[in-house]
Amino acid sequence: MSITPEELERIIGHMNDDHGDALVRYAHAFANRSDVTAAKMVDLTETEIVLALQNDERLAIPLTSPVQTAKDAHVVLVEMAKQAHNLLADKVE
Q: Alpha-carbon distance 93 to 1, whole Å?
């Protein structure tokens, strides 16, 4: 993965500061963890995001596509947010 440590810090900070709701939806939609009410991203690898949950639990969420760059991460995380929204909306209907 060619995401620099600085880019990784920026991505994680942005997701935690601005998209906490998406992180919770990732847990609900992609890990079937409807019990999750709050999550913080703590890592991003080529193939997964790692969330910190209540009680210091860590939850790895597989990415829908591998990421190599910060741009890849942006595209994949946005697409996953849309997919999670749609999957969860379908469950409600």
A: 39
